[in-house]
Amino acid sequence: MPELPEVENARQVVEKALGRVIVDIDDTDTFECRPHMPGDIARALTGGKLTEARRRGKAMWCETVTADGSSGPTLGIHLGMGGRVIVTAPDGERTSQYGGGDPHVGERPTDKPEWTRFSMTFDDGGQLRLFDKRRLGRVRLEPDIDALGPDAAEITRDDFRHRIGSSGAPLKARLLDQAAIAGVGNLLADEVLWQSEQSPSRRAKTLTTDELDELRVVLRRAVRSAIKKGGVHTGEIIPFRKTDAACPRCGAPMTRGTVGGRTTWWCSREQS
């Protein structure tokens, strides 16, 4: 699934749709819009507006108002493994697109119409669309985000020390626990642990206060870099997560294993 940087990029795209009057919604894909029935989301939002695009970790949602200006239901948008949010301008030209890449995604001859799983049309003729070839995304009203921990890009020093440093779990597994800290996925975890020269299997509670503080600094820096560059795939260590690769920093062989149930790569010398 997408990690915090990808979802933040998508959130910034959704901001292009704020304040525009919704005149039509296609919510007929019952899998993507589960548990709602066709028409449920349309009836709740048509005539209203999206007023704010928000995110915590990998979760993204929009605040809304109804046609009479009163507070409306929140709208959750989950990208799945490869979903793309597309927002078009009033004249039909694209204003922005999640994640960069092909500017014609969703419009290429090979793109099937049914791969647009959800669409919202505005009174100016523009649209917000969720293009999801693999059909692993989700759009729903009133998404539950209460179980998520603090956002990885915003967590305070003291909160990070407590939530990460109090656990007996392997460090990588703790970073991946969305209830502890929200937004870190498999690639971002490997990037951050490589940058900080920490073993992914080290017990989190054995880190010193200074090591926890440094890990938080590295995490926030890696998140900012990935957002700026377009995603976690732009990390320094990501191209070297493969067989026969060497650590780009010291030249030692990269090692592959499983930590926290996830495939993990680390430097055999610096992260031992």
Automatic annotation (TrEMBL):
Chemical reaction(s) catalysed = Hydrolysis of DNA containing ring-opened 7-methylguanine residues, releasing 2,6-diamino-4-hydroxy-5-(N-methyl)formamidopyrimidine
Supply the alphabetized keyword list: DNA damage, DNA repair, DNA-binding, Glycosidase, Hydrolase, Lyase, Multifunctional enzyme
Concerning PROSITE patterns, the annotation shows: FPG_CAT
UniProt superkingdom: Bacteria
Q: Does the record carry Hydrolase as a key word?
A: yes
Basic and acidic residues: compositionally biased ranges: 104-113
Query: Which Gene3D superfamilies does the entry mention?
Result: 1.10.8.50, MutM-like, N-terminal
- Extract the Pfam families matched here: Fapy_DNA_glyco, H2TH
Boundaries of each Formamidopyrimidine-DNA glycosylase catalytic domain copy? 2-137
Region ranges (Disordered): 94-113
Family in the record: Belongs to the FPG family.
Under which name does UniProt file this protein?
DNA-formamidopyrimidine glycosylase family protein
Q: Which organism is it from?
A: Rhodococcus navarretei
